[in-house]
Amino acid sequence: MSNPPLPPEIFDYIVDILHDEPKTLQNLCLVAKSRVPRTRKHLFADIKFSSPKDLESWKKTFPDPSNSPAYHTLALSVNCPAAVMAEDMEEGGWIRAFSHVLRLEVESGSTPTVTDSRVSLVPFHGFSPVLKSLHVSFALSRPQSSVFELIISFPLLENLTLIDRNPLLDDRDDFYALQIDTPSTSPAFTGTLKLVLSGGMGFAARRLLDLPNGLHFRELKFLWFEEEDIRWAAKLAVRCSHTLECLDLEYDLLGTSVLGLSWTYSLPRYL
Fold first, then answer.
1. Of 250, 134, 149, 142, which Cα lies nearest the Cα of 199?
2. Largest CA distance in the chain
């Protein structure tokens, strides 16, 4: 007499327990096709495109974006934004198959290149309406206006990290600030804000301070490269004073860390 099959809910529970065991989950897929949907939820929860080759491999494996496991992806990391831009133009919205991503990381090379200067972030605009964490790291000659347009396209955004590794960018030039109209609404911004901007925090701070829905970050983390950044950090801290619980500051002068401060609000809050 053969053993009765496991109830579906028991099997699903076992699969969920094995969420961080990809090899085991892959073997389960080989055992029975009926096991594929549940295992896909975990196998494709975290996707990284480190190079154009990774992207091409994904396309060959899943040629139909509407029927790909991108639906299950919760964390997406892209280290080849130029390749994604090209593929998106060809496919007519290829990146939008990742519509349930909660965390997005977009990074370019460590130094500015001609290719980087032509990268468009438009394919990423609002691609996942549930996005809550955005990490953008670029080394471009003029990245910040396009990055800001990306930021405001996610209404539920809570955590924001901006890293600009191009020391030649001088944000004291208001030219870039004139390129973007103030939106009528803005993201939630209730988590962490981290700014590491080699050319100075001014542009990013101005745009954030102008947002109509205000700032509600619980954590602020700043690395200063310009003396003027001290003033912008203070303005951001004041604007978030009603929600701020942690403030981390570091001042980097000519590549040498000369100041580090950390403050955490540890007492209970009372209404």
1. 142
2. 80
Q: Measuring CA to CA, which residue among 205, 186, 200, 207 is closest to residue 253?
A: 200
How does pLDDT run across 157-192, given as a tens digit for each residue? 999 999 987 655 555 544 444 455 667 788 999 999
pLDDT band at residue 218 under the 50/70/90 scheme:
very high
User: How many residues comprise the chain?
Assistant: 271
In the chain, the amino acid numbered 223 is: L
Q: What is the Cα Rg of the chain in Å?
A: 22
Question: Is residue 183 packed enough to be buried (19+ CB in 10 Å), middle (13-18) or exposed (0-12)?
Answer: middle
- What pTM does this model have? 0.80
Measured distance CA(84)–CA(241) in Å, rounded: 39
**Which structure tokens are listed for 73?**
């992806």
64 pLDDT above the threshold of 60: yes
**Residues paired with residue 194 on neighbouring β-strands, in sequence order:** 161, 221
Residues 6+ apart with CB under 8 A from 210: 182
